[in-house]
Amino acid sequence: PTYEDFCVDGKKVVDYICDYVKDIAKRDVIDYSLKPNFLHSRLAKEMPVKGEKFDKIMTDFNRKIMPGVLNWMHPNFYAYFGAGNAYPSVIGEMLSSAISSVGFSWASCPSLTELEQIVLDWFAKALDLPPFYLSKTRNLSSIGGGAIQNSASDSIFAAMAAARHRAIKTLQDQDSDRDAPPSKYLPKLVCFASLNAHSSVEKAAKILMVKLYAVEPNQEDSMTAVALEKAIKETRDKGLVPFFVLSTAGTTGQSAFDDIEKIGNVCKKYPSIWFHVDGAYGGNSFIVPEMRHLKRGMALTDSFNVNPNKLLLTAFDCSCLWVKDMKTFLEAYIVGSVDIEDQISTGIVDLHNFGVPWSRRFRALKLYFMFRMYGLKALQDYIRRVIKVGEHFAQLVKADTRFRVKNKPILGLVCFRLVGKSDETRRMAALPSPVDRLNEILLKKLNETNSIHLIPSHAQGKYVIRFVANQENCSEEQVEKAWRLIQETATKVLSSSSP
Ligand code: PLP
């Protein structure tokens, strides 16, 4: 295949993508009947020895692979957090792949390194983050700034690893045994996050071999400062060293926000603690002033991550991580003869020092095209629509007395639960775990229609069905249609669940 072929085939792909997006509502969201290994039986066991024609491969792609694709961009996809496929970000992806420059250092691709700083500064300002997160703001002897990571999990890992490095260094400095290895201190280190924090926190703690204290959330699914401080004191009484606190701005299961200001004030009392906020989903909402009360206290944080691919229309992957003190952060990652002072003094940090990967894609391009082609105003309008549509859906649920809303539906995410009418509830009481089971059945029946996709969660201690309306074109009419299907299916489920 040559680039002359690409001129022809590439255009066909763009046409395919445009048709896919235009007609997506005509497809099923999902084929719920698919079983694992479905694709193995459809495709060849070996790669072809001789290259094949593009058109033939495209036909196979369409007939064999696409049927197993869960259509995340479908208007009736309400599972997980809807992803983004806004075309400015797709263009950024195309250019990044085609240019294919690898940006591990400034010299390896100057524009890649600098554009990443520039778009992260633009974004930090649009989110109204503290100035110390901007790349050229000097904090005492260091600078702050950000870089794009593959995923929120990577961002959280990167922050926790830097915090662990700082904590071990402090313990080593205090130790009379000057030759003690870093591993000596690992059993002492403990980090804290809500039980509702994403499992990537547990994964990071596991890989980094530190203890995780999962703090019990309150009735509204948020971690409170009181519960956190109690947990910190408990661990300190045992001789452990709290080194990292993660609070979540928009939990995965419930879109609950921890109180950053109160938690930050607790963290400030303990100098050994690095305070990180995971705003993978909810952090995007700070782009509108009316959501900024939820980020009060951000000045108390040491690092922050947000994924525009979860709530700002941008194609995956795109997790923005900012750190306040770049020098401390870099110390965890710098190897070989890299001079930190040199990096700090130029204000240009080579990206291979910003976390685990050496090579970096030109991911900033997708944010560059997104931010320029939409502009701040359109992105704000989109967030406001997500909020409005979510509130509208919650109202629909509340209007049907057979259902309960089990979270604060402030950001397009509604956790609801079918409880049945009182007589139905009595009948259901004869079933083993009645209401949970009823909701499991309802969810299965809905997904089996192939025309809607939802997943379960837990909110306020209950099994719930989780509905997220964050499509680019999400609308009140669209969720009303989905709600009618949910109501009809619930009626059928209730009438068939006899004692
Ligand atoms: N943090 C939160 C709040 C999330 O909701 C998620 C995933 O949905 C993650 C972290 C992990 O994100 P990623 O898939 O980018 O690693």
UniProtKB/TrEMBL annotation:
GO terms for molecular function: carboxy-lyase activity; pyridoxal phosphate binding. This is CLUMA_CG002482, isoform A. Pfam families: Pyridoxal_deC. The lineage of its organism: Eukaryota, Metazoa, Ecdysozoa, Arthropoda, Hexapoda. The modification N6-(pyridoxal phosphate)lysine is found at K310. Its cofactor is pyridoxal 5'-phosphate. Keywords: Lyase, Pyridoxal phosphate. PANTHER family: FI02861P (PTHR11999:SF76), GROUP II PYRIDOXAL-5-PHOSPHATE DECARBOXYLASE (PTHR11999). It comes from Clunio marinus. InterPro entries: Aromatic_deC, PyrdxlP-dep_de-COase, PyrdxlP-dep_Trfase, PyrdxlP-dep_Trfase_major, PyrdxlP-dep_Trfase_small, Pyridoxal-P_BS. SUPFAM superfamilies: PLP-dependent transferases. Gene3D superfamilies: Aspartate Aminotransferase, domain 1 (3.90.1150.10), dopa decarboxylase, N-terminal domain (1.20.1340.10), Type I PLP-dependent aspartate aminotransferase-like (Major domain) (3.40.640.10). GO terms for cellular component: cytoplasm. The keyword Lyase applies. GO terms for biological process: amino acid metabolic process; carboxylic acid metabolic process. Belongs to the group II decarboxylase family.
